[in-house]
Design a protein that fits this description.
The complex is a heterodimer of chains A (173) and B (101).
Chain A lengths: L1 H21 L3 H21 L3 H26 L12 H27 L9 H4 L1 H9 L3 H22 L11
Chain B lengths: L4 H21 L3 H26 L3 H31 L13
Helix pairs in contact in B: 1-2, 2-3
Classes of the chains: A mainly alpha (173), B mainly alpha (101).
């Protein structure tokens, strides 16, 4: 049962990830990324992290990707223009070759390091929200506060950057 | 039968490589950003898999912080794209080769 769920959602995640990268229209890429992220949330539940799965759906698909969609609509960049430039095609194939080599190397390392390793039975402590919260607010309190500060800085930076530049003195509007 | 550890890690590696290919081949700034989000999520998957393997909560907490940093990164990056678009009327990264203009 677990294997069946894993295989179905792994294929779904890989297919939608390819669509994210390959589709020419960024709106479809964003929607496809939603599918990838929801499948990853399923894996998080299988791995005993239901709270992280909920956060994944709420924050990633609910907030970040909606922000992407807003910006795409704001900028009106529907299709990528195709003007063939010299060396573009060879560059693309080299990039894909490099990515495949990278994946094979990573996979080789994982295969050599963890082949035959199996998960221990899931402990109660790993799944419970209580232990996660107590670790977050005791041992990891400082990183938590720093992340809060980072988000504040990001909000201010985004507002300053996206604001219309103030008019120069004396220039006609 | 439970799913072996390697399957999760191999899936994460494959997703990360797809994201890398996207960053290297695409020219639309937004799509490159989406590819970066994909890479971040591949890493999140391997963090949660390790958290389960080692039976420690640290992996899940790191994913929590990665989510927060990804949100900050998306906000600032998209604001940058809006600012660039206002100047250049494009977000094609091949035409963004000047630091100032």
């Amino acid at each position: 049962m677990e294997v069946a769920i894993f295989v179905i959602f792994a294929l779904l995640a890989l297919a939608s990830a390819v669509v994210v990268v390959a589709h020419r229209n960024p709106v479809y890429s964003t929607i496809s990324l939603v599918v990838t992220l929801v499948s990853l949330a399923v894996f998080f539940i299988l791995l005993g992290a239901p709270f992280i799965a909920a956060l994944q759906i709420l924050i990633y698909t609910g907030a970040i990707l909606v922000l992407f969609l807003f910006v795409i609509m704001l900028l009106n960049v529907s299709e990528e223009a195709t003007h063939p430039e010299s060396g573009r095609r060879i560059q693309r194939w080299l990039a894909i070759l490099g990515a495949v080599t990278f994946a094979l190397l990573l996979g080789l390392g994982v295969w050599n390091g963890y082949r035959g390793t199996d998960f221990a039975p899931m402990s109660e402590e790993l799944v419970s929200l209580k232990s996660l919260a107590s670790a977050l607010f005791s041992e990891y309190l400082l990183p938590f506060e720093i992340v809060g500060l980072l988000l504040l800085v990001a909000i201010i930076a985004a507002t300053v950057l996206a604001r219309k530049p103030p008019r120069e003195e004396g220039s006609t509007p | 039968m439970t799913v072996p550890v390697t399957w999760y890690l191999l899936l994460a590696a494959a997703l990360f490589a797809i994201g890398t290919a996207g960053v290297l081949t695409r020219r639309n700034g937004i799509t490159i950003f989406l590819s970066i989000e994909l890479m971040l999520n591949a890493v999140n998957l391997s963090f949660v898999a390790y958290s389960r393997l080692l039976d420690q909560l640290t992996g899940q907490l790191v994913v929590f912080f990665v989510l927060a940093v990804a949100a900050a990164e998306a906000a600032v990056g998209l604001a940058l794209f809006i600012a660039i678009y206002r100047h250049r009327r494009t977000i094609d990264i091949n035409r963004m080769n000047l630091m100032r203009w």
